[in-house]
């Protein structure tokens, strides 16, 4: 069996239709979870779209740019972005209703301290979008900072710096909430 970390092996795995099926089996659960946490009502459709796009784009995969897993999460991120753009175009001026593809709804289910859920959602929403995405990819999707960097298209060192900044902002904001300090 070929080493999946070997660049040439990864390249063959993505390009070969039979090996691609094994790739789907290996990563399907994690990628479906990515959609379920961000767009629960559309997760199945988005997951299917991901595999269609990944299969169509498989010849463009470059093992020099990162792991297959990071590439797939990048494709997933693009599918999700397209979904949100389409929804906004279909419903101009209408806010998303709670629970309607609300990526924060799943956060409530996962928080141990339910009383902090609104504060943590607010803190996450205040983060710059790339920092928020990096934090969620590392925390929820269990990607390494290097893999998350490849997903959002920034250098790994920059991702580590932004992750550090995001974690500090979240920690400091939670500490302020716990002590009742409004600043």
From TrEMBL:
Q: Which GO terms describe its molecular function?
A: DNA binding; sigma factor activity
Signal sequence range: none
Q: Give any Pfam family that matches.
A: Sigma70_r4_2
The record's annotation in InterPro entries points to: RNA_pol_sigma-70-like, RNA_pol_sigma-70_dom, RNA_pol_sigma70_r2, RNA_pol_sigma70_r4_t2, RNA_pol_sigma_r2, RNA_pol_sigma_r3/r4-like, WH-like_DNA-bd_sf
Domain of life, per the record? Bacteria
Which residues are in the RNA polymerase sigma-70 region domain?
Answer: 23-88
Give the keywords, sorted: Sigma factor, Transcription, Transcription regulation
Per the database record, which ranges form the RNA polymerase sigma factor 70 region 4 type domain?
A: 119-170
One Gene Ontology term of the biological-process aspect is: DNA-templated transcription initiation
SUPFAM superfamilies per UniProt: Sigma2 domain of RNA polymerase sigma factors, Sigma3 and sigma4 domains of RNA polymerase sigma factors
The entry sums up its family as follows: Belongs to the sigma-70 factor family. ECF subfamily.
Tell me which NCBIfam families the record gives: sigma70-ECF (TIGR02937)
Q: What is this protein called?
A: RNA polymerase subunit sigma
């Amino acid at each position: 069996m070929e080493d999946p970390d070997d660049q040439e092996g990864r390249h063959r795995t993505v390009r070969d239709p039979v090996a691609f099926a094994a790739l789907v089996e290996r990563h399907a659960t994690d990628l479906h979870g990515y959609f379920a946490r961000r767009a629960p009502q559309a997760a199945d459709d988005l997951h299917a779209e991901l595999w269609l796009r990944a299969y169509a784009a498989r010849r463009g995969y470059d093992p020099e740019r990162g792991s297959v897993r990071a590439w797939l999460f990048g494709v997933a991120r693009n599918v999700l972005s397209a979904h949100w753009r389409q929804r906004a175009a279909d419903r101009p001026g209408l806010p998303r209703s709670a629970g309607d593809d609300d990526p924060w709804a799943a956060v409530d289910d996962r928080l141990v301290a339910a009383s902090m859920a609104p504060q943590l959602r607010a803190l996450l929403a205040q983060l710059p979008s790339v920092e928020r995405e990096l934090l969620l990819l590392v925390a929820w999707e269990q990607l390494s900072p290097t893999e998350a960097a490849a997903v959002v298209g920034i250098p790994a060192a920059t991702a580590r710096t932004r992750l550090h900044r995001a974690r500090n902002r979240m920690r400091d904001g939670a500490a302020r909430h716990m002590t009742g300090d409004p600043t």
